[in-house]
Design brief:
The complex is a heterodimer. By secondary structure, chain A is an alpha/beta fold. Chain A is built from eleven helices and 26 strands. Chain B has a five-stranded mixed sheet with strand order 2-1-5-3-4. Classes of the chains: A alpha/beta, B alpha+beta.
């Protein structure tokens, strides 16, 4: 019997790979190995509807458990892979089992960065937000009247702030940089979200450095800022970014940089080993990128399945992202890295606008806040390689649909 | 509960009983309906759960709001008058017997 295709890591990329492989009639046996106790689930709702208590756990699952069984996919949950033996083409579980593979797909994802233990990162009441288990731990403490301190003004921190305000917590958010979202968005987008959160009563502080968390009986009770200010709190949520889970790949001697290095078919430096999703890094427009997004995980997983099925495919998908905060739907298309100009397009209603990123004359990306037309037609415009002028973009009278159709 | 039928372009069909309150993108992926992906989980950002509603059923599936209407511009197979994003159709007894046609991207 031939060895199976072994998929390590049961997230979006794995689910997408399996779905496509099965749909294309792939004949090799599949084995999915995951550290958690659940089939692959959607992570984006974790910091939104799931935390809000509006979505039961089973509805997070990308496919129900029975689906994998119906497709004859072997499943091993609660199982950690400790090492890869590339010579023997085997992975070794933490229980000491050797599992032979014909091809290996690493979908090991990424982990939330934590605050160092030396400044209180390990105290009780300090959380990160990445897995369903994280939310199950934090949700019972998300109670009206509790004080929540969020460290980090990225999308996860902002989404959690929105949920917490909706549940009646008192929320303070600290951002070390000059502005929230500084690493990922233009100042106009930061301004939009700063206003939104302030309107909803979040105490938002930028350009502040926290020196440490303070404890009482082993549990966090306050944060001390470098200015000496003390902020009392009941809970701390740390949202300071993530890093790729490359340990397994690195230990096996695969090329790694900010992620597990892959080519345009998601193949690592070992031809029998592939990587997809948050853990993989690749070159886009001459720049090394690693994306933490559903789109990237789903499209890369899908691409590996097509590659295995013999299709001539190369990864070039246009990235897209979204975030929901209060009644604002943010939709992003493209990658804005390297932009040298931003143009604001006024929205069609109050509380809506879009920010368009250009490098020279080239349109790179769009942040659309409650402005789905900018997102939907902007995506078509970028895909078609049409580069509107900044004047066209800024003019609310410009018909984006016509522009997208090249008219 | 509603019995929903998805009809594929090749003539094959999938029929399933769907619990009230579930959206029909979730129901489709759970029942292995091809070409329905639902990458964004039903938050109107991906347009990968496009269906054509059997015209006699269209009105019963509910209103198409502005966001859905805009996102329908992004579907792989071009929209028609009876297009919906199936994540926005919620199963209820009123939809018992609903027929959805699944477009197949090239």
């Amino acid at each position: 019997m031939t060895a199976p295709i072994v998929i390590v890591g049961a997230g979006q990329a794995a689910a997408s790979f399996i779905s496509r492989y099965v749909a294309l009639g792939g004949e090799q046996p599949l084995l999915l190995v995951g550290e958690e106790s659940h089939p692959p689930y959607q992570r984006p709702p974790l910091s939104k509807k799931y935390l809000l208590g509006e979505l039961e756990r089973e509805r997070l699952f990308i496919r129900p458990l029975e689906w994998y069984q119906e497709q004859n996919v072997s499943l091993r949950f609660d199982t950690r892979i400790d090492s890869i033996d590339r010579e023997r083409r085997e992975v070794l579980t933490s229980d000491g089992d050797a599992i032979a593979y014909d091809k290996l797909l690493l979908c090991t994802g990424s982990s939330a960065r934590r605050l160092p233990a030396a400044i209180g990162g390990d105290l009780k009441g300090v959380f990160t937000l990445r897995s369903v288990a994280d939310i199950d731990r934090i949700a019972p403490q998300f109670k009206s009247g509790h004080r929540l301190l969020i460290v980090g003004g990225g999308y996860i921190g902002l989404e959690a702030a929105a949920v917490a305000r909706q549940l009646g917590l008192e929320v303070t958010l600290l951002e070390m940089a000059e502005r929230i979202l500084q690493r990922v968005a233009a100042a106009q987008t930061s301004d939009y979200f700063r206003n939104l959160h302030q309107q909803h009563g979040v105490h938002l502080q930028e350009s502040v450095r926290m020196s440490r968390l303070l404890e009482q009986n082993g549990r966090v009770c306050a944060a001390e800022l470098e200015s000496g200010e003390i902020i009392d709190t009941d809970l701390v949520l740390v949202g300071i970014g993530g890093s790729a889970n490359t340990e397994l790949a690195q230990a096996a001697g695969l090329d790694c940089d900010i992620g597990i290095r892959v080519n345009d078919v998601c193949q690592t430096s070992d031809p029998n080993i592939f990587a997809a999703g948050d853990c993989a890094s690749f070159t886009r427009n001459g720049v090394t990128v690693r994306l933490e997004s559903v789109q990237n995980a789903a499209d890369q997983g899908d691409l590996v399945a097509r590659h295995f099925a013999g299709e001539d495919v190369h990864y070039s998908a246009l990235p897209w992202f979204w975030s929901d905060q209060y009644d604002c739907k943010l939709q992003i298309v493209g990658l804005n890295q390297g932009h040298d100009r931003t143009v604001v397009r006024p929205g069609s209603s109050e509380g809506s606008l879009s920010v368009w990123y250009f490098r020279g004359d080239t349109l790179l990306a769009i942040d659309a806040m409650n402005e789905p037309k900018s997102y939907a037609f902007g995506r078509k415009i970028i895909e078609a390689g049409i580069n509107p002028t900044p004047q066209q973009v800024a003019d609310p009278a410009t018909d984006l649909k016509a522009l997208a159709l090249g008219k | 509960m509603a019995t929903i039928t998805w009809k594929m372009e090749d003539g094959s069909e999938i029929t399933a009983d769907v619990k009230d309150g579930l959206n029909l993108m979730e129901a489709a992926t759970a029942n292995n309906v091809p070409h329905i992906e639902g990458e964004c989980g039903g938050c109107l950002s991906c347009a990968t759960c496009h269906v054509f509603v059997e015209p006699s059923w269209f009105e019963k599936t509910g209103e198409v709001d502005d966001i859905e209407d805009t996102m329908l511009e992004m579907t792989d197979v071009e929209r028609e008058d009876n297009s919906r994003l199936s994540c926005q159709i919620i199963a209820s007894p009123a939809l018992d017997g609903l027929i959805l046609h699944v477009p197949e991207p090239e």
